[in-house]
């Protein structure tokens, strides 16, 4: 079962006359629903893919960085693999920061000082 489909399209950029004759850019389409991912992994993949994911649940990647089909095909596959691998890595839970009494006092003092600077701005009365 082949989940990803590759098609070759005309590329822009370097290549001279070759660009006009040969379809060197690669467009890879992957059906995400066929992967049967867990909901949290799917959500991370959807967020990482952004606008590259269609409403039909396909991730569309276009690789046109290189001058040959083989290099662009390898580039597209690497990028797709990196995108999927990144979705499987759960983000580290955020540790709540703790501020001690001295830190709180220093923050309040800095706020008061900044407020005093702003309060002194404006029209000057002679």
The helix content is 40-55%
Strand order of the largest sheet: 1-2-3
Distance between the termini: 84 Å
Count of DSSP strands: 3
How much strand?
15-25%
- Examine the secondary-structure arrangement and name the CATH architecture of one domain: 2-Layer Sandwich
Number of helices: 4
Rg, Cα atoms, Å: 26 Å
For the report, how would you describe the main beta sheet? 3 strands, antiparallel
* Whole-number mean pLDDT: 88
* Shape by Cα distribution: elongated
Low-confidence stretches: none
Look at the structure and give the CATH class of one domain: Alpha Beta
**H/E series:** EHEHEHH
Give the CATH topology of one domain: Double Stranded RNA Binding Domain
Structural class call reads alpha+beta
Pfam families: RF-1
Enzyme class: hydrolase
Protein name: Peptidyl-tRNA hydrolase ArfB
GO molecular function, one term: ribosome binding
Question: How would you sum up this structure in a few lines?
Answer:
Residues 106-126 are annotated as: Disordered. This protein has a three-stranded antiparallel sheet.
Overview of this structure, please?
Residues 106-126 are annotated as: Disordered. Keywords: Hydrolase. Residues 10-26 form the Prokaryotic-type class I peptide chain release factors domain. This is Peptidyl-tRNA hydrolase ArfB. Its EC number is 3.1.1.29. By secondary structure, this protein is an alpha+beta fold. It has a domain at 4-88: 2-Layer Sandwich (Double Stranded RNA Binding Domain), CATH 3.30.160.20. It has helices at residues 17-21, 39-49, 69-88, 101-119; strands spanning 4-9, 25-31, 58-63. The protein has a 3-stranded antiparallel sheet with strand order 1-2-3. The longest helix is centred in the middle third of the chain and has 20 residues, at 69-88. The chain is elongated, with a radius of gyration of 26 Å. It starts with a strand and ends in a 7-residue tail after the last helix. The model has no long low-confidence stretch (mean pLDDT 88).
